[in-house]
Automatic annotation (TrEMBL):
Keyword Transmembrane found: no
Pfam families: Glycos_transf_2
InterPro entries: Glyco_trans_2-like, Nucleotide-diphossugar_trans, TPR-like_helical_dom_sf
Keyword Metal-binding carried by entry: no
Protein name: Glycosyltransferase family 2 protein
Source taxonomy: Bacteria, Bacillati, Bacillota, Clostridia, Eubacteriales
All residue ranges annotated as the Glycosyltransferase 2-like domain in the record: 6-112
Organism listed in the record: Clostridium porci
Length: 359
């Protein structure tokens, strides 16, 4: 079995060395398509044993991916970006995992995405189809996806990704996403990607239209659906006002059964019910117990990286929010209990509240 690492790159000198060091030991060959680097990316890749081809950029990420794949003779192709770094895994373990499955399938890796959240650096996970059998190609001008109906089977591969901490990525992607939505206005996936990009750029009002279109046209069985619903709810809450909260209430009530097993959804629901009650206590006071219930449900679900979502919504973040809820409602001992739980998992804000309550 031949396994190749296949990438497209442009000006990745700062991160490519770490990427190739992490993934190179798994690969028989490293295949790179350079789409126009002006730094030392090409020279670095060649020095690390990669085979590099130039690809004239054509405003189409799939075209670049497929060009690189066309130069690979691997039975399997591991597809990574230059700002993704595999966690340790031996070739032997990976080979055993691949040979354990028969038929046509795609290999999934769990990616850990670092992102800024206020003054903190948080992390989210997602299962991505990145090990492709020979012959599989990509479709989509941006946020490209494998063009096949094969199931995605998790492999013992995890990757860290720091690209969301870098400035400029959202601005780079935005014109492509606008163009993709113009071409395919009823494509829920493109609407989701446009909405989340606008949200990340702080353009919340502009993101609301694409979020509504995503919710109307999106595939409820798609891997992006649950995360899209959660971001839609956060956006409505961030914008605020009675009409936005009413819209969020409809979404919560519509999705609460189908998404009840996801900690991310229960977590955002806990925040939503808090905002709802505070917005008009006399009208919504009956929803007060839902706040506690949502966070307790998060802890009962726990952390499930394969399901995707923000790390901590099934553990320390939920415990911390329970602590604040109990503290605000005068239940000091319960507050201490859950602050200790969150602090024991390394969550610094919980340790600060513990110190404040002890003083």
């Amino acid at each position: 079995m031949k396994l190749n690492l296949v990438m497209i790159v442009k000006n990745e000198e700062a991160s490519l060395g770490r990427c190739l060091q992490s993934a190179g030991p798994l690969a028989d060959e490293i295949i790179l398509a350079d789409t126009g680097s002006t730094d030392g990316t090409r020279e670095l890749a060649l020095s690390m044993g990669a085979r590099v081809w130039d690809f004239p950029w054509a405003d189409d990420f799939s075209a670049a991916r497929n060009f690189a794949l066309d130069h690979s003779d691997g039975d399997w192709n591991l597809v990574l970006d230059g700002d993704e770094y595999l966690r340790p895994c031996s070739r032997e373990v990976l080979t055993q995992a691949i040979e354990a499955h028969k038929g046509s399938w795609l290999g999934g890796i769990v990616r850990h995405d670092a992102f800024a959240e206020g003054n903190e650096i948080s992390c989210s996970t997602s299962l991505l189809p990145r090990l492709l059998p020979r012959g599989v190609r990509y479709t989509g001008i941006i946020h490209e996806q494998p063009d096949c109906p094969f199931p995605c089977i998790p492999l013992p591969l995890e990757a860290d990704h720091d690209g969301y901490l870098r400035k400029g990525k959202g601005e780079r992607n935005l014109p492509y996403l606008i163009h993709a939505v113009d071409l395919h206005p009823e494509d829920g996936y493109y609407q989701f990607q446009l909405a989340s990009t606008l949200r990340n750029l702080g353009r919340l009002e502009e993101s609301l239209g694409p979020f509504r279109a995503f919710y109307r046209y999106g595939n409820r069985m798609g891997a992006y659906w649950a995360g899209g619903v959660v971001l839609y709810l956060y956006t409505l809450m961030d914008l605020g006002g009675s009409e936005k909260l009413k819209e969020a209430k409809k979404v919560v009530e519509s999705e609460r059964h189908s998404l009840s097993a996801l900690a991310d959804f229960s977590f955002v629901c806990g925040l939503f019910y808090m905002k709802l009650v505070l917005s008009e206590p006399s009208r919504y006071i009956a929803y007060l117990p839902e706040i506690e219930s949502c966070y307790l449900r998060c802890l009962s679900i726990g952390e499930r990286p394969l399901d995707g979502g923000v790390t901590g919504t099934g553990s320390f973040k939920a415990a911390y929010n329970l602590g604040t809820w109990y503290e605000a409602s005068g239940q000091r001992e319960k507050a201490l209990q859950y602050y200790r739980l969150a602090a024991g998992q390394g969550y610094a804000p919980a340790e600060k509240r513990l110190q404040a309550l002890r003083s």
